[in-house]
Structure formats: structure tokens, C-alpha cells
Write a structure and sequence with these properties.
Layout: E1 4-8, H1 12-25, E2 28-35, H2 37-45, E3 50-55, H3 66-76, E4 80-84, H4 87-100, E5 104-105, E6 110-113, E7 119-125, E8 130-135, E9 141-145, E10 162-166, E11 194-198, H5 208-218, E12 221-224, H6 226-231, E13 252-256, H7 262-265, E14 273-278, H8 285-288, E15 291-294, H9 297-311
Parallel strand pairs: 1-2, 1-4, 2-3, 3-10, 4-9, 5-9, 11-12, 11-13, 13-14, 14-15
Antiparallel strand pairs: 6-7, 7-8
This protein binds flavin-adenine dinucleotide (FAD).
The site of flavin-adenine dinucleotide has 27 residues, from α6, α7, β14 and α9.
């Protein structure tokens, strides 16, 4: 294969996940890291042969490293540069692609190779109703991948690799003035392994504790449909799932009293297991779920909560 694959993420955990994929796509995997020595060691234990380490400087925004990251990519000429799709990662991917005049393909769900060894990028379009396959023929290809596209392998501390220390040379054009804790909701639904979503089938705000109790029994986080957050304002905007809301990829997605319209389920279609509770079996949610309870949520949820608590 003899292909160089480079990985970058602002989260070293996410870079470890991407190394799992990188190892199947090339035989020479490196990571560009803005972090510290211990992050670099972790990446080597996950299979990075080289880590280009920019020591993270206090109060310097990640974007300030983009020119230097571009220089590494331009010099090393990997066939593929995989970037974790965090807010800052998206920016870095675009800045690097522009600097090295490479194509940038966003939000890839899968990367494979064809018979000629070219990368084939799988993406979802039309709210996830259709898939596309794109082949890129240029030199270095920059792609962004959602978090958890791959699962990190167990670290192997017997693996060896090289840490190449780099210095930021480019000028920092953005000055960090102040860091303030984000007001409001601190829960990140997109990082949860278990998501319990509810919709307008929950008739009153006073009934929400019934859902929260089930979420707590499952050790998950509660999410909602857009009308619950935007129209009723029962939950923060950051908790609604879907096309215009958050995307999630949990192991378990419990969908309670929501119709499962494509705009909503688009944000959860990568969940491993989808369980629906709805009293109208003709709703679209029944076409996408793995398991379903066709019945009244006011009967089903307390029974489910009791059964799950009994397992503890
Ligand atoms: C451009 C665009 C973008 C959008 N983006 C999003 C998005 O990101 N996220 C999103 O959520 N929506 C989005 N929407 C809105 C989306 O199309 C749906 O209107 C919305 O998701 C419906 O919310 P719901 O399922 O809570 O309500 P409803 O569609 O009213 O569904 C309520 C469900 O509860 C069931 N039910 C009622 N009572 C009970 C009971 N006692 N027991 C069990 N089941 C019961 C009903 O059978 C019904 O299926 C978008 C729409 C547009 C046009």
C-alpha cells in the first residue's frame, strides 16, 4: 500500500479513534498534535508511528497553529489527512486544505479504497435519506470525520514511535481576551452512550421527571425533539436532536413519544440500537427502530424504569 495517512484532532482521544481507521487506510500513520508529551505517548500506544508535537501554549487559540500544521502536511505529503470534526477541527481542515491547495471533503461517514487504491468517501445527503460515494484523485486529500466514526483500540504500551517536536512559527493573529464558562447547559448529548429522547407525546412539562427517572436508571442523558426545545422551551436548545439540532451516535437511543420525522431521526441514525415507544404504529419512527413498544408511554415508561432499576 505504501501510503502515508496523517491524523489531526484537538482531542487526543478522538485522534486515537481515528488511528483505528488510519491503520486500515495506509501503512504509515502519523498524528499532528497540539498537546503535550503524555498525549503523544498515548497516540504512539494507539499505533502512531510519528507524532509531530506542537507544545500547547497557554492562551493561544488552536487556529494559530494552522499555518504550521499546513507546513508539516505540505512537507510530508500524506495521501490522506483525517481531521476530527470538532468546531475547531472543521476550521483547521479548511485552513490546511486552502493553504496546500487540496480538496477538503467534509463529514465523511466512511473511507474505503477501491481496486486502484483510491480513497472512496461515503457521505450522507438529503438529511440522511441517500448516500454518496466520492472518489478523489488529487494528491493530498483532506477529510473531516464526525467524532466516534471509529472506536479507539486498547492502548499497547509496547508500541514504539517517534516524537518530532515542532515550534509554532506563525504569528498568532487572534488574541484570547477572556475565558468564561458557557452559561446554561453543560451536558454534551453528542458524547453520550445512552440517549433518552422525548417528543410531544409527553403531554405536560410536569411529566418530564418520569422521563428523567428512566434516563437516570439507564445512566444516560435526556434529549428532546425540536418542538420541545424551540417551541415549548422545556429543555435547552443544545438538547434537541436532528437535522438542525445535535447529531448523536450512542450505543442506545430510546425514542419516546416522538413521531420520528426524518428531520429528527437524521441526527440519530448512527445510533447502534434504536428503541421506540409510541402509541401510533404507523408513525415513521417504527420504520427506523430496532425494537418498539406500540403503546402508551405513560404506561410503558414507569414499567421500563422499574425493570431497569431492578437490574441494578
Ligand atoms: C427544515 C426543518 C428542520 C427540522 N429540524 C428538526 C430537528 O433538528 N429536530 C427535530 O426534532 N425536529 C426538526 N424538525 C421538525 C420535525 O419535522 C418534526 O416536526 C418534529 O420532530 C416533531 O416533533 P415530535 O416528534 O416531538 O412531535 P409530533 O410529530 O407531534 O409527534 C408526537 C408523537 O407522540 C406520539 N404520542 C402521543 N401521545 C403518546 C402517548 N401517550 N404514548 C406514546 N406516544 C404518544 C404520537 O403518536 C406522535 O408520533 C425540522 C423541520 C424542518 C422543516
Amino acid at each position: 500500500m505504501n501510503k502515508k495517512v496523517f491524523v489531526f484532532s484537538e482531542s487526543s482521544g478522538n485522534a486515537c479513534e481515528m488511528l483505528t481507521g488510519a491503520k486500515t487506510l495506509g501503512d504509515n500513520c502519523s498524528v499532528i498534535l497540539v498537546g503535550n508529551e503524555s498525549d503523544a505517548a498515548e497516540l504512539i500506544a494507539h499505533g502512531a508511528q510519528k507524532v509531530f508535537l506542537f507544545e500547547k501554549e497557554k492562551d493561544i487559540m488552536l487556529e494559530a497553529y494552522a499555518d504550521d500544521i499546513s507546513k508539516v502536511v505540505a512537507e510530508e505529503k500524506p495521501a490522506l489527512f483525517m481531521v476530527g470534526m470538532t468546531n475547531r477541527g472543521r476550521t483547521i481542515a479548511a485552513m490546511v486544505a486552502q493553504a496546500i491547495q487540496a480538496p477538503c471533503v467534509s463529514e465523511c461517514k466512511s473511507i474505503t479504497t477501491d481496486a486502484e487504491g483510491r480513497y472512496v468517501l461515503g457521505r450522507k445527503i438529503y438529511s440522511g435519506m441517500a448516500s454518496t460515494s466520492e472518489v478523489c484523485t488529487s494528491g493530498t486529500l483532506v477529510v473531516t470525520l464526525p467524532m466516534r466514526t471509529y472506536e479507539a483500540e486498547t492502548a499497547d504500551t509496547s508500541l514504539t514511535g517517534e516524537i518530532i517536536r515542532k515550534k509554532r512559527e506563525s504569528e498568532c493573529k487572534v488574541k484570547l481576551v477572556e475565558v468564561r464558562a458557557k452559561a446554561g447547559d453543560s451536558v454534551d448529548v453528542s458524547a453520550a452512550d445512552t440517549v433518552v429522547l422525548f417528543g410531544r407525546g409527553v403531554a405536560k412539562q410536569e411529566d418530564m421527571p418520569m422521563i428523567e427517572e428512566l434516563t437516570a436508571a439507564l445512566g444516560g442523558v435526556t434529549a428532546c425533539t425540536r418542538p420541545i426545545a424551540v417551541d415549548y422551551k422545556w429543555m435547552p436548545i443544545s438538547r434537541y436532536i436532528g437535522l438542525s439540532g445535535k447529531s448523536v451516535k450512542p450505543k442506545l437511543y430510546l425514542d419516546i413519544g416522538s413521531s420520528g420525522q426524518i428531520q429528527q431521526i437524521a441526527g440519530a441514525q448512527d445510533a447502534k440500537i434504536i428503541v421506540a415507544i409510541n402509541n401510533n404504529p404507523s408513525e415513521p419512527v417504527f420504520n427506523v427502530c430496532d425494537y418498539a413498544v406500540a403503546g402508551d408511554l405513560y404506561e410503558a415508561v414507569p414499567i421500563l424504569t422499574k425493570l431497569i432499576k431492578a437490574l441494578h
